[in-house]
Amino acid sequence: MKFWISAALALGLVAVLAAMVQNEYYFFAGYVILMYVVLATAWNILGGYAGYVNFGTPAFFGLGAYTAVVVFKSTGAPLIVQILLAALMSGMLGFIAGLFTLRLRGIFFAIATIALVVIMETLFVNWRYVGGATGLQLLRPAPMPPFESYNKMLFVVMALLAVVAVAIARWVQDNWIGRGLRALRDSEEAAESSGVPTLRLKVFACAVSGALMGAAGAPMPMYLSFIEPASTFNLNYAIGALASPMIGGMSHYIGPVIGAIILATVQQVVTVTISSEMNVLVVGVLLVVFVVAAPEGIIGLFRRLRDWKKA
Amino acid sequence: MIFSFDLLLEAVLFGVLLGCFYAAVSMGLSVSFGLLDVPHVAHPALMVLASYCTFLLNRMGLDPIVAGVLLMPPFFLLGMAVYRFYYETFEKRGAETGVRGIAFFFGVALIIEVGLILGFGVDQRLVEAAYIGQSMPVGEMRIPYRMLVAFGLAVLLMVALTLYLSRTFTGRAIKAVAQDEPALRLMGADPVRIKQWAFGIATAAAALAGAMLIIVGPVEPSLDRVYIGRTFSVVVLAGLGSMTGTVAAGLVLGISESIVLMHFGASWAPAVAFGLLLLVLAVRPQGLFGR
To answer: What is the CA A267 to chain-centroid distance, rounded?
Structure first.
């Protein structure tokens, strides 16, 4: 109940902001921050609960974006349909890729997911209908009635997606699926022999995680009014999606949210004030520092502080 | 598409040269990941770093090969330091190193890449030497000398590493630590010190590989992303830690990449390494020469 109240409050805040703030830039930046909340939350379902490092975020994200473009170009369907179909396609990719690669452990799975990114990118580079390597310009339709600008609409849509993603992550974490995933993270053999259907759970987690990443990618072509394979399948999305849970903490659904908000905000500030190279450097340094010095992330730091106060 | 025997022959010949080069750049990873089980995603980034050091030394008038050899001792020390750090922070803590170890090396690769962008910009860099830009006619074809130089270096590096690992005392100790660490401990040897030494050698090999990389073609900071795929697919295809296998796997990758390049065009080539990798992982995860 507490969760739904805070989710409603967050959405209310978003709505008030959308109504009050006039400067378009804030929505432009806010969209990216919320997008990373979705990506990090999605990543954590497989990476945090089950312990499988997925570098393939750009593959799912990009497939979602391109699905939206194909749907838009062929039928002109509205954004909501694009997002749903994108989630469906990326979820299917997660299901199929998971079925083949989730028998692999550790680094082998991680490398296989990088392979997935390069293969997807190569496919879309060679597909003329969506513009090939040079990309495709897209004309934004008029925004839906209550919104006066398209950026505001995308911002609110992404906020809704973020709430849906966190709700799904919470649901997975709190029921038997999450318990099974955590069990197989600690010891796959022990989990399997106590009757946990490990492969089925991993494939499920991979499909759900992929679907959410696809949904996060779907509005991207409209956000940029442009799509092009090299930036759509950029490994930087993988880095953001992986670094946020590491920084926030992987054991709880709120960890990736905290991590993504901090990381993406710092990135936006650094990009504007210093340079876009510097923002990638910040991610790298933060990632290494947290992995080395605070393995449980910010959540872990808070827990330690609480225990220390009690003692 | 018209099938032509000459074109195929040229593709295979070029593929052999390219394949030996791929095998050589994967040698270091074959030790650090193949033998020591360290998820060293930053290996290609270290290689690109060495390429840029070669570029700097070359501007001071040194031949790139000499530069590569000179870079080996400092990279050896760097590698030992990296392993020590990795051991103290991850391996020693035991459980749950997997996810964080991979993320750690990923972060290191990112820092190197952006550091290079900040220092040198995103432009492509290349080195100058007498043998770069010239080519040798062989029948109808022309083989660039730079490929031959890289080929020669690659063969030397492979022979040296293979002999080192099979003939010398330390080399055998490295193989032993990969096979059975507790047994080595019982024999009174310190596995951590041997692994540290081996990681140093792997990184020194990466330094020479970096010199070869910039001899073969222009280098840019983000080049490591492509080579993550190539090197890991060679090492996995080889069967972890097999040096003979690394050569064979390099040749397989080089020849298939060059055939795809000539028959389907450059836009399909990047997927070859990864397609091959996925195929191997699905069909024969222990690789060609699996232990």
So the answer is: 16
- Residue pair A256/A40 in contact (Cβ under 8 Å)? The answer is yes
**Which tokens belong to A284?**
């790298």
Q: How far apart are CA A74 and CA B19, in angstroms?
A: 43
Type of residue numbered A189: E
Across chain B, mean pLDDT equals 86
Least Cα distance to B15 among B152, B207, B153, B143 occurs for B143
The number of folded domains in chain A is 1
Asked whether residue B290 is assigned to any structural domain, the reply reads no
- Domain of B217? 5-283
Q: Which of A34-48, A253-267, B208-222, B228-242 has the lowest mean pLDDT?
A: B228-242
The helix (run of H) or strand (run of E) holding residue B135 is strand B135-138
- Sign of the dihedral defined by the CA atoms of residues B189, B190, B192, B193, in that order: negative
Under DSSP, the state recorded for B219 is B
Provide the Cα torsion B261, B267, B268, B270; round to 10°.
Answer: 90
CB B87 within 8 A of CB B102: no
Q: Please give the residue that has the higher pLDDT: either A86 or B285.
A: A86
Interface ipTM > 0.95? no
Confidence of residue A143 (pLDDT cuts 50, 70, 90): confident
Verify whether the Cβ–Cβ distance A287 to B267 is below 8 Å: no
- Residue whose tokens read 């926030």: A248
DSSP 3-state of A132 = coil
CA nearest B229: which of A56, A127, A214?
A56
Domain extent for A104? 2-235
Tokens of B72: 């080996």
- Interchain proximity B118–A101, CB inside 8 Å: no
Query: Do B267 and A126 lie within an 8 Å CB cutoff?
Result: yes
- Phi-psi map region of A76: left, alpha, beta (phi>0 left; psi -120 to 50 alpha): left
Under 8 Å between Cβ of A59 and A117: yes
Encode A7-21: b = buried (16+ Cβ within 10 Å), e = exposed.
beeeeeebeebbeee
Query: Under 8 Å CB-to-CB from A45, ≥6 apart: which residues?
Result: A168, A169, A172, A205, A208, A209, A212
From the CA atom positions of chain B, what is the Rg in Å? 19
Backbone angles phi, psi at B125, to 5 degrees: -120, 145
| Structural domain contains residue A176 | yes
Say which of B99, B111, B225 has its CB closest to residue A288. Answer: B111
Note whether residue A267 is domain-resident: no
pTM of the predicted model, to two decimals? 0.89
Asked if residue B291 belongs to a domain, the reply is no
Please list every residue in chain A whose beta carbon sits closer than 8 Å to the beta carbon of residue B273: 118
Within a domain: residue B155?
yes
The answer to whether the CB of A210 falls within 8 A of the CB of A64 is no
DSSP string, B92-156: TT-TTHHHHHHHHHHHHHHHHHHHHHHHH-SS-B----TTSS-EEEETTEEEEHHHHHHHHHHHH
**Neighboring chain A residues of B277 at a CB cutoff of 8 Å:** 111-112, 115
By the 8 A CB rule, do B142 and B135 touch? yes
Here the tokens at position B234 are 């060679």
Kind of pairing between the strands at B135-138 and A136-137: unpaired
B162 falls within a domain: yes
> How many independent structural domains does chain B possess?
1
Residue contact B102–A106, C-beta within 8 A: yes
Sequence letter at residue B216 = V
**Residue B214 near residue B127 (C-beta atoms within 8 A):** yes
Structure tokens at B251: 């040749």
